């Protein structure tokens, strides 16, 4: 039997907490605000931006979308990020990838103030994450880990394969799995025998963007499969990287697309935004008391 590892219920719980915390801030005259910067006509980004805007409005977070042209030069995107980093009314910033061909992403990562870096894109955030220090993790990577833990899937002492090595998903997920005592193999375009590698893993995380890449031959019977892929089709559907039909009855657990990692990602991005807004107003004694009572969010 294959368990469906859904994320919608978990996302609802996170959103309820975000709503309560956002209400406290709003009562004190602070509107938690997330800026979403795009420079792409990529359809899966459009899905994410719609999901963020919808969830933000339901939780009491103000969402500001800065939609730049898909051929915007690095300088233009950089200037937008610097302005948002310096704007005290903005608490969180997410720069959507992909970006126009030729964009210098490393310059842009540096331009996101670490205290507003709610998708963990700045090397300071990534470095702190890897050093085990408090930092905003990329929301998707955190969503993968939280979803696995929510469904009581043991990581300690188990083997994992991560397919994809972007800084948004694959690389941070791999590190976070190792931090939780899994033994991890990272796969990418140059991996010689993908199926032979993933077939040895108890847990397979796939973040590639190629629908149907992972089929039954890639997965050992009973393993857990986390499908991060979201490819939008022309007829308005969202496809994962896993051939779900081929895995039903074969995998032990599988995240659905939609309804798996995606909703948790969106909810955690908003949670990070509220945390950033709380920290930015740490001088507010009421909020300080609340923060001291609660553990530092990872
Ligand atoms: N559900 C959610 O919350 C989220 C979903 N996504 C989705 O996840 C997917 C991946 O996103 P992202 O990491 O940003 O994408 P990138 O394009 O940045 O990275 C894709 C990775 O997949 C690898 N890859 C590509 N083709 C193959 C192949 N045939 N075999 C093995 N590896 C391959 C690439 O390898 P190489 O490095 O060698 O080029 C690269 O490391 C997309 O569909 C995206 O929309 C992303 C973020 C959040
Ligand atoms: N810097 C950056 N970080 C990202 O995390 C990032 C990005 N860029 N670029 C685009 C991809 C794509 N992505 C999605 C996240 C959630 C859903 C999502 O919530 N999907 C819902 C469906 C949406 C809905 O129902 O409204 C689901 O899977 O159920 C989709 C896509 C994040 N990405």
Automatic annotation (TrEMBL):
The EC number(s) this enzyme carries: 1.5.1.5, 3.5.4.9
Catalytic reactions on record: (6R)-5,10-methylene-5,6,7,8-tetrahydrofolate + NADP(+) = (6R)-5,10-methenyltetrahydrofolate + NADPH; (6R)-5,10-methenyltetrahydrofolate + H2O = (6R)-10-formyltetrahydrofolate + H(+)
Pfam families, sorted: THF_DHG_CYH, THF_DHG_CYH_C
Pathway listed: One-carbon metabolism; tetrahydrofolate interconversion
Binding, NADP(+): 164-166, 230
Residue stretches making up the Tetrahydrofolate dehydrogenase/cyclohydrolase catalytic domain: 6-119
Protein keywords: Amino-acid biosynthesis, Histidine biosynthesis, Hydrolase, Methionine biosynthesis, Multifunctional enzyme, NADP, One-carbon metabolism, Oxidoreductase, Purine biosynthesis
Record-level GO BP terms: L-histidine biosynthetic process; methionine biosynthetic process; purine nucleotide biosynthetic process; tetrahydrofolate interconversion
GO terms under cellular component: cytosol
Residue ranges annotated for the Tetrahydrofolate dehydrogenase/cyclohydrolase NAD(P)-binding domain, each copy included: 138-280
Superkingdom field: Bacteria
Molecular function GO labels: methenyltetrahydrofolate cyclohydrolase activity; methylenetetrahydrofolate dehydrogenase (NADP+) activity
HAMAP family, sorted: THF_DHG_CYH
Subunit structure: Homodimer.
Function: Catalyzes the oxidation of 5,10-methylenetetrahydrofolate to 5,10-methenyltetrahydrofolate and then the hydrolysis of 5,10-methenyltetrahydrofolate to 10-formyltetrahydrofolate.
PANTHER family referenced in this protein's UniProt entry, alphabetically: C-1-TETRAHYDROFOLATE SYNTHASE, CYTOPLASMIC, C-1-TETRAHYDROFOLATE SYNTHASE, CYTOPLASMIC-RELATED
Family label: Belongs to the tetrahydrofolate dehydrogenase/cyclohydrolase family.
Stated name of the protein: Bifunctional protein FolD
Source organism: Gordonia rhizosphera NBRC 16068
Origin organism lineage: Bacteria, Bacillati, Actinomycetota, Actinomycetes, Mycobacteriales
